[in-house]
Amino acid sequence: MLKRFWTTPIMGYHRVGESKADHVPTVSAEVFERQLTFLASRGYRVWPLAELIDALEREAVVPKKSVAITFDDGYEETYTIAMPRLSRFGFPATVFVTPREVGLPGFMTWEQLRAVSRDGMTIGSHTLNHTYLPLESLEQIEHELQESKRLLEARLGRPIEFLSYPVGGFTSAIREAAQRAGYRAACTTNRGLARASRDVMSLRRVKITDRDRHPLILAVKLSGYYDLFRRIESPS
Ligand SMILES: [Zn+2]
User: Fold this and answer.
1) Three-state DSSP class for 139?
2) Class of domain 2-233 as given by CATH
3) Residue 236 pLDDT
4) What's the 1 CA to ligand 1 centre distance in angstroms?
5) Among the ranges given (1-10, 68-77, 135-144), the one the predictor scored with the smallest mean pLDDT
6) DSSP bridge partners of 231
7) Chain-centre distance for alpha carbon 116
8) Running DSSP on this structure, what letter comes out for residue 135?
9) Three-state SS for 110?
10) DSSP state of 105
11) What confidence tens digit (pLDDT) does each residue in 45-64 have?
């Protein structure tokens, strides 16, 4: 039974670089580098999100040592610190951005997003205003989902297929609105592994932090055992 399910961790990063006073989960450049080295040295295959979703939908067999890498919010350090390192390792990643924040101090610019996109990275939507959707009206939810997609597509000149719910907040109505808006798949922020049997509109991610500097901790986290331990620790 268990063999019918494969699990592929989708790693969820926010800021890479120096911690700031804004409580955004941050991984230092050094630890990030160490995590990429771990993936490379252990023979992990890093999948572009689109290929992973293809495989999920086909229920294809995905090698055990597979991961996808995502970044939320589009901080400028995603461009200045994370991207050069990912390129060096030849690892693809997806960056979920909020169009209203693009170009603001501390965030990536449109030019940087276009450059990253040209280099083969995937850009996804993180709604228009980084809105916590469960508190909004359906009309506002639809606006956030549709307008962010439209703006990103217009400015970047390519289809926007993926969504990340801000703060992981979604309901079944939001999930349906996201599908109607034309998203192929959506990520939450909940810990956990993507499973073949799971819904592509609510893909769980493994939150990666500075505390995952030790290769063993990262290995356990990516193996799914961490998820199991956490569930036992906090049954809620
Ligand atoms: Zn966010």
Assistant:
1) helix
2) alpha beta
3) 35
4) 36
5) 1-10
6) none
7) 15
8) G
9) helix
10) T
11) 999 999 999 988 888 888 88
